[in-house]
Write a structure and sequence with these properties.
The structure is a homodimer of 357-residue chains.
Chain A lengths: L1 E3 L2 H7 L2 H16 L4 E11 L6 E11 L4 E12 L2 E2 L2 E2 L2 E3 L9 E7 L5 E6 L1 H19 L6 E5 L5 H11 L4 E5 L3 H15 L3 E3 L3 H5 L4 E4 L18 E4 L7 H6 L2 E4 L7 E4 L28 H5 L13 E4 L5 H18 L3 E3 L11
Parallel strand pairs in A: 1-9, 2-16, 10-11, 10-13, 11-12, 13-14, 14-17, 15-17
Antiparallel strand pairs in A: 1-18, 2-3, 3-4, 4-7, 4-8, 5-6, 8-9
Helix pairs in contact in A: 2-3, 2-9, 3-4, 4-5
Chain lengths: 357, 357
Amino acid sequence: MTLILSNADVGNLLTMPECLAALEEAYEELAHGRGVSRQRSDSIVRTTREDALYSLKSMDGVIGKLGVGAVRINSDIVTWPKFGNNMRRVKVPAAPNQRYTGLVLLFSSETGEPLAIMPDGVMQRIRVGAANGLGVKYMARANAKSIGILGSGWQAGTQLTAACAVRTIETIRCFSPNKENREKFSAEMTEILGIEVVPVDSPEAAVRGADIAMCASNTVDNIFFEHYLEPGMMVSSIKRPEIAAPVIRRADRVVVHTQQGKPMLVASEGLDVPEHGEDKGWGSMAEIDFTKMPTLPEMIVGKCTGRGSDEEITVFLNNLGLGYQFAAAGAVVYRKAKEQGVGHELPTDWFTEDVHP
Amino acid sequence: MTLILSNADVGNLLTMPECLAALEEAYEELAHGRGVSRQRSDSIVRTTREDALYSLKSMDGVIGKLGVGAVRINSDIVTWPKFGNNMRRVKVPAAPNQRYTGLVLLFSSETGEPLAIMPDGVMQRIRVGAANGLGVKYMARANAKSIGILGSGWQAGTQLTAACAVRTIETIRCFSPNKENREKFSAEMTEILGIEVVPVDSPEAAVRGADIAMCASNTVDNIFFEHYLEPGMMVSSIKRPEIAAPVIRRADRVVVHTQQGKPMLVASEGLDVPEHGEDKGWGSMAEIDFTKMPTLPEMIVGKCTGRGSDEEITVFLNNLGLGYQFAAAGAVVYRKAKEQGVGHELPTDWFTEDVHP
């Protein structure tokens, strides 16, 4: 049977410690050249809406050791509204019942069969959290106790959960531009973590004196600047545009998630896709060659060092997500779903065939 | 509701003339830079079987004009046995009930929603047939009456159906190495086409004097050679290794399906993947630069000419399939399935989400 799982199922099944462990093992496989990761691609065309584009995003990964392959697909109606000085990428919930379309398809690498189909949203934020959590594990000071976080949205929660799973955190301060959002988020995370999260009214107030500065926004502009840096600080980012280029140049060590730092863009002729533009987002670090930087998988297997001393400034830049992460997290979710009898079971024959295609 | 369709549904719904028309329109969009096609990728790792590899293949396409995007996925256990002097790529039906895993996911480019999920096998052969049928339409002599076909397998049938849909064919000869197979195939196709298909015992006997020579094999070695060529012949191939390089050099006009003539290969370190090797298959035409050749979409919109005179030798090389074709064919299948109430309906909510991922 092929399992159809919901975001609620994924949220119940995939704990942060399990996701951290699965990703760490998967990155080892990747670093040793056994696991494989197919770079994200964005296929983008116009829609009949003037302000929106259609984006079909896909990324694949296979981890033979875990017996799985995964394809993650996003089928999005995307707009780029301005919020104050910052432009954001905002998806429109245009599917029936005002919903978004993002899927993970999990396959067996031993039989080829489709094991499970599930939405990507909850897994997406847990795996982003876990990747940056591994960044913190290898790059923050061993005695790091305080976090300043910029952002209070969808990704911010798992950033904190993951960091708190790898360090003994005592203090967390949070800034995001909307006061109501940051206060609500701080109250919720205080409850979840059992550590007080204090909302503050400027980015500087959040990161000043923090051992770990985490960016968790949906901006396509810079939000973390060189003058925020302090000796011994570890800076973590979930997407390339967040950190200004001088921060990268100033840091003692910079580790990226992947050297394939840019998705493959396949767009209709003449389309201006904001986050792929030269002057915005990706372009803000155009002069930095990410293809030569050490990666998280390399750091995990000891091919590079995350931190050399307590005084160093270190940066982990989760510059681009990998379908590979969904294979690792998906393997955990599938195993537990089978054990616990969770999900809708559909005949696997519906998703397989008797012809040799 | 999201439709789950079977190969039988696709076979009943998608006629060759409809597929030819949908692809022709889709290729026009592609040639005009409005439709987009993301090149196939093959992510390949070892399995626990010594003779087999696991291949997770994906390819995407979006056709705004038809309101659809598609991802085609193959999750295959692959072996490369030798048959006589030729090596073949053979998938192992390792999924439950000895089945293969190949899927097409069809999305709306206006709402993002998943419209349908279906196996790829039947659509795969119809769209390969239709692509080569368009090659025949634009590159064979207008008065072409005879076909010689090399191959009697899964792809061969739709090659004939498509060619017969665009030319008035009177004579068909078929060769494949296995006598029983070619006789069975010839009898079946005679029935289907209402045109006698004659099995013959050598490739030369099949193609000698043929106006249209079609290769429809699963070889990874050359099967069509320069000395088979005759003035006025149109040669059609469904995969790059079939035609020997001298045929390409000798032809007056060569049109390819796509300039992205090679899939993106992402394989575990040290893996030898036969059809990606330098000395086999893809490598046999290594000296020919496919990225500079005119393409089928360009020919359809008149950016190049398929045939200049009745004496010319022309070659259409379907060098690599496109996910884009599945979007075009999928749009036809989905429309007709909705009209006719075909398929299992599942709640679209199962494949969408209320979180902004």
